[in-house]
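Project standup — Tuesday

K.O.: blocked on the structure for the chain from last sprint. Re-posting the sequence here as requested.
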Amino acid sequence: MAKIEQGNQTAITEFILLGFGSHPELRVPLFLLFLVIYILTVAGNILIIALVVADPHLHTPMYFFLGNLSCLETCYTSTILPRMMASFLTNEYVVSVNGCFLQYYFFTWLAGSECCLLSVMSYDRYVAICKPLHYATLMNGKFCLQLAAGSWINGMVASAIVTSLMSRLIFCGPNEIDHFFCDFTPVTKLSCSDTRPIELVTFVLASIFTLPPFLLTLISYVCIIITILRIPSPTGRQKAFSTCSSHLIVVTIFYGTLNIVYLSPKTPTLRDLNKVFSIFYTVLTPLVNPIIYSLRNKNVKEAFQQFLSYCKSFGGDCYSQSSSKFLISIIKSQNF
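H.V.: unblocked you, prediction finished:
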């Protein structure tokens, strides 16, 4: 364990991510499982991005935000899974302190941005269902760009503040993090410094950057449900609900597992259970998002069928062309 002298204390420079190391017999099965999940996650989200860019029918605010969410999910899962898979493959669980902070920075940035982006998507559905006559005016291109950029920037700012404060902590005791990635509580509990100031700042920032988006999402869907229930026609209610059901499922999975992990008591009994639920919002949510949106969305399914037809036009093998040339050919063919 690398150490450096700092005053009268010896500061550690490396952490050990225990993760699932207590079950060495599961290393290979877990590696294969997470490898398949990672490939499917990246492929599914990149496919949605390509469909949104290439298909003019998807050039609407709803799918613009969906493309942003898919981009975010691709980056989000890439901050966790490659490092974890490398540990399974090499049996090496050591990470430098700076590397740990860097992973935490990107994880917090993307998680915070997802909270904001999900609330933006909820607001978009609220305007579409509750104020349909004003939708084109309210959700114009400039405003959509501002909402998307604001979501990314909010997460980045909050993460930069917390990570900078965390980097000032001194770690001189045990260096084993009982988690599969560098999260706030498992890391700060190892510090020899007084962590109360950073815990207070983190609580305030979490309240500012995540509570309002959550409340906006909640209020939006309360208004949406009330509006849908007032529609006299059953067909009309079903059609209105189908436009937001996919997003509602994604929001429920994300916030449900997030609340279980961060609001449940930090007892030894629940420690392993929290790891399992952490996998849900860090690994499985990015995987199921493309599946949910593709299976429950008529426009995405039609765009995907069109994508397959273009594959056939290339001789049945999309991958015989480079991905960039393939995408350019689709865009040109649709006069994008």
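K.O.: great, moving the ticket to review. Residues 319-336 have pLDDT under 50 and may be disordered. Residues 97-130 form the longest helix (34 residues).
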